[in-house]
Specification:
Layout: E1 4-6, E2 45-47, E3 53-58, E4 71-75, E5 80-87, E6 90-99, E7 103-109, E8 115-120, E9 124-128
Antiparallel strand pairs: 1-2, 3-4, 4-5, 5-6, 7-8, 8-9
Length: 132
């Protein structure tokens, strides 16, 4: 019910679950009382309650030059896309750029540089592009 994490993946690293977590079990109880422990990596961000992360993609398009290399995270349960700015392996800002259009199933940067979002409930494909 919570504790969705964003981690920087490192070869051989231990991310601790379920020994360390920000998450709650489905009955509402803590999975663990520890959120950090020596020798275990900490997430660069986490979401409690769970946002039910589905797709994640980096913005690689020059069409979105101000957002280049930012991370887009889809949230099934909140029907939203969040844009995360990451610097020096830390999330320095986070904003919701799309909300209540449906459950976000996939996000891709197309060959034209636009961002394509596959939704369901209702089922549709939308194209995002910057406004001049």
């Amino acid at each position: 019910m919570g504790g969705d994490e964003l981690n920087i993946i490192k070869k051989g690293a231990n991310y601790g679950w379920p020994i360390v977590t920000y998450g709650l079990d489905y009955d509402g109880k803590n999975i663990s009382k520890s959120t950090n422990r020596k020798g275990m990596e900490r997430p660069i961000t986490y979401w409690t309650p769970s946002i039910a992360i589905c797709p994640i993609t980096f913005i690689t398009s020059n069409l979105f030059s101000q957002w280049k290399n930012n991370l887009l995270v889809g949230a099934l349960s909140f029907e939203e896309i969040r844009r995360l700015e990451i610097k020096d392996d830390k999330v320095i800002s986070q904003e919701i750029i799309l909300k209540n259009y449906g459950r976000v199933r996939d996000i891709e940067v197309g060959p034209d540089g636009a961002i394509y979002v596959l939704l369901n409930n209702p089922d549709m494909l939308i194209r995002l592009k910057p406004v001049k």
